Amino acid sequence: MILTHCAVCATDLGLTRGKKCGRCSTRYCGAACQVQHWKEGGHDQLCKKIKRSGGAEQYNADQRYTKAVAVAAEACAEDTKGQTCYICTQALHWKTKEGLVRGCSCRGTAGFVHVSCLAEQAKILVAEAEENHLDDKLDERWARWNTCSLCEQEYHGVVACALGWACWKTYLGLSETDQVRLVAMDQLGNGLHEAGNYEALSVREAILSMLRRIGSPEDDMLAGQSNLASSYEAVGRVEECLRIRRDVYSGRLRLHGEEHLQTLLAANNYATSLVQLQHFEEAKTLLRRITPVARRVLGDNHDITLKMRFGYAASICFDTGSTLDDLRGAVTTLEETARTARRVLGGAHPLTTVIERQLRASRATLSARDSDVGSITEAFAAMTPSPR
């Protein structure tokens, strides 16, 4: 259940408190708000419509999906001007009349598409794998909900958010214990997070609560905790984020060993929190140990490897105790990482832009130190990433 607030006063109801409309399942904190919504809030006009749409959860998802698609198309309008969808070959979607998007790493004339076309393609591929019991193909098919089939890079920003709502509205009617529904819920949380929407926090809290209630395996619990930590970080609860990420990294290391993808992801997340809280020596020690593992297992082009190299260089640049030789080495690392990110992800990708911004500020810091002018503190302030 994603709807966790009273429809009238927005009181947080969690997953179980309050009451629901007997017809459409709209949630309220109590009878007073329900009556007010019926008499003054227009619910008397909407109730039957919401029920016909599948209930409050489905109605909300459908409405939010339509809005998210419009936002994504508008954000991509300049980039997609004069192009056509690589799936349906039309500029405007034949049914929804939505515009095109491109939120991956495709360049040139590749990758222009309608969110509705992507969603329909993913839905068909997943259904086909399930119906034919292609268990070995299911993960690959499911990736179409978040990864471009052309460049094989994940969608980001408002496009990821629109796909998150598309995925959730497709599978929300399944049983709470159905793994597909759980993954769809997770997809929505990731999409909201990508778009900088703080609603990701409530979605991820709901996911973790559900995982605990149904007794999910430890692996799933760690994934839920990791995502929740990212939402804590986004709303400034960085100490809580650090504690969770430390526990998740320890759990992944114990379950999978240091070379597993999820362990490396958890290690990078933990290191990011250490840098953010200025625990630079601890961060550098961790990154010196795990970055060579990531480069060996995942390769230099993988986004986790790029983030690790970026994090190590950033920790040196933010640390006022770094020597000139340390700073020179950090700038060299950032230059190499920026080139790789631009080649693999493209210049418009969020990770590329963050690395290149850090590189510019680090060069300024090094220049100031070399010439013994300016304040390194001012240079650090310039390096602080802007909120996404």
UniProtKB/TrEMBL annotation:
Residues 6-47 form the MYND-type domain. GO terms for molecular function: zinc ion binding. It comes from the Eukaryota. The keyword Metal-binding applies. InterPro entries: TPR-like_helical_dom_sf, Znf_MYND, Znf_RING-CH, Znf_RING/FYVE/PHD. The keyword Zinc applies. Keywords: Metal-binding, Zinc, Zinc-finger. PROSITE patterns: ZF_MYND_2. It holds the Pfam family zf-MYND. This is MYND-type domain-containing protein.
